[in-house]
Each structure stands twice: as C-alpha cells, then as structure tokens.
Amino acid sequence: VSGVHAGKKYGFEETTTDSEAVLRDAEVNTVVVATRHDSHARYVCQSLLARKHVFVEKPLAITRQGLEEIEKIFQEVNAPKAGPAAVGAEVGALLLMVGFNRRFSPQVQQVKTLLTGVGEPTSFVMTVNAGSIPADHWTQDPKVGGGRIIGEACHFIDLLRFLAGAPIVSVHVEALGDQGQGMRADRVSFTLRFADGSMGTVHYLSNGHKSFPKERLEVFSTGRILQLDNFRSLRGYGWPGFSKMNLWRQDKGQTACAAAFVDAIRLGGPAPIPFEELVEVTRTSFD
C-alpha cells in the first residue's frame, strides 16, 4: 500500500513488490537499490546477473563475503569476450555506482581543484557530529544495518579517498570509552594513511550537540588551510586567489551524483567512481 502511494505521489509508471519481475523486464536497463543495508549485496548481484546497471545506496555491502561476491560477479559480467564480439566490448559494460555523494558536492570539487598539483602529502580532519540514535535502531544492528561505521561513516572514507587521490594503505581506530565489541560503536576516531604519505582522520561522534555543524572538513596543505562547514561555507586561509565559496543552501552533491551516473549510462562513459575505489572504501570500513 505504501509503495502504491509513493508511486502515485512521485509519478512512477508502475509499482510492484515483485522484485524478480523488475529484473526480468527487458525494458528496464537500470536498477536503484535503496533497501535496508543487509539486502544491498544480494540485490546488486541479482541486478548485475540480470544485465542491469546498478545504483546502490551506501553501503555497498555489510560483510566481506557479500563484497567478495559482488567483486566476482562484477568481473564476470564485464569480462572481455573472445572473438569478433570483443571489439567495442567496453561500450556495453555494466556500471555499478554507490551513492557516495559527498565527492560530487560543488565545494568538495573546489577543494579537489585547489589541491591539484600541490605535490606534497596533505592532512585531512573530518569531524562528524553524527547525533545519537537508539541502540535498538535497525542501523545499529550488525546483521541488518551493519552498524554506523559501515553503514554511514563509509561516506567520509570515500570523501577523503577522493581528495587524497591515492590508495588507502592502512587504518588505525580508537573508540571512546567502553562501547563493547562489534560494530555498534558510534563514538570513534580513525586515521587513514594513503599511499602518497597523506593522512586523514575521521572523528565520528554521537555524543555532541545538534547546534554544532554536522559535518566539518579541514584540510592542511603547503602552509595553507581549507575549512568546509556543513557543505554551505568553504573558507580558504593562505590560498592565492581563493578566500571563500558560500552557498545559499546546503549541497552535499546528491543531485550531481545521480546525474553523473545517468550521464555515464546515456553517453557510454566510464563509471563516475571507479569500481576498485568502491571496493577499497567498503573494505576499509570493515577494517
């Protein structure tokens, strides 16, 4: 009933609870997975095997087994074909996209442009005022939501991976107080080390106050600093020709993220985020 209501409200042509019918439909070339986290890997695999492009909300998977299955199937469905059919095989490649929208934010794009050609390791500090949610919320359940680090903090691993422009080579984690074992911890600091010598620290904390910015990024590089508050206010300190970039309203890059994926399908271009980076970020969230 809720699906039919949402379909009428937002202009969908058809509403169904039969996911298998969607995958069998030859008129459908792309599937969006926006279900609970524990079903993401399964639907991604089914969609790829049905020869559909896939946009999946984060996280890509919540277990290593699920991620490994996605890797295997993605490589199989996009494997070059032998013989004459191999010519232009890449044109028909299936795209897999995770909704890591922060990297598509206009202000993050500006930060990336400013960092281009810096030529020395950079330090990133990401502070996430995540807010408290009940311990029995489904996102906190390791088997359903994966916990808040795998389920949400993966956004910030991807953001720093994008800005660093180099593979993650190690991760070190500390949790605040006695949070017990497993993935329920949501008062955590972790530091990523990148192959070029850069490092990024994410403070993901649920014990703050809602009046403080929810997401703040600080970048230290070549005697200069960039500070991004809540994807509205970007300030530069010591950057020649750049002092600020403010927006009338918050823009975390959701629209640009979706548009980049759709354009890649329509125009036959490469995936907006390389598959290898999607796997790297997801695996780092497990670590």
Average predicted confidence as pLDDT: 92
Shape: globular
Helix content: 25-40%
The total of helices stands at 8
What gyration radius follows from the Cα positions, in whole Å? 20 Å
Element-by-element helix/strand order: HHEHEHEHEHEEEEEEEHH
Please indicate the percent range of residues in DSSP E strands (runs of 2 or more): 15-25%
Sheet having the most strands: 8 strands, mixed
Adjacency order of strands in the biggest sheet: 5-6-7-4-8-9-10-11
Number of strands: 11
Give the termini separation: 40 Å
Output the structural class.
alpha/beta
Low-confidence runs: 85-91
Describe it:
The chain is α/β, with parallel strands linked by helices and 287 residues long. It is 32% helix and 22% strand. It has 8 helices and 11 strands. It has an 8-stranded mixed β-sheet, covered by helices on one side. It has a 3-stranded parallel β-sheet with strand order 1-2-3, with helices on both faces.
Q: What layout of secondary structure does this protein have?
A:
Layout: H1 2-10, H2 19-24, E1 30-33, H3 40-49, E2 53-56, H4 64-77, E3 96-98, H5 106-115, E4 123-129, H6 148-164, E5 168-175, E6 187-194, E7 199-205, E8 215-221, E9 224-229, E10 233-237, E11 244-246, H7 254-267, H8 275-286
Helix pairs in contact: 3-4, 6-8
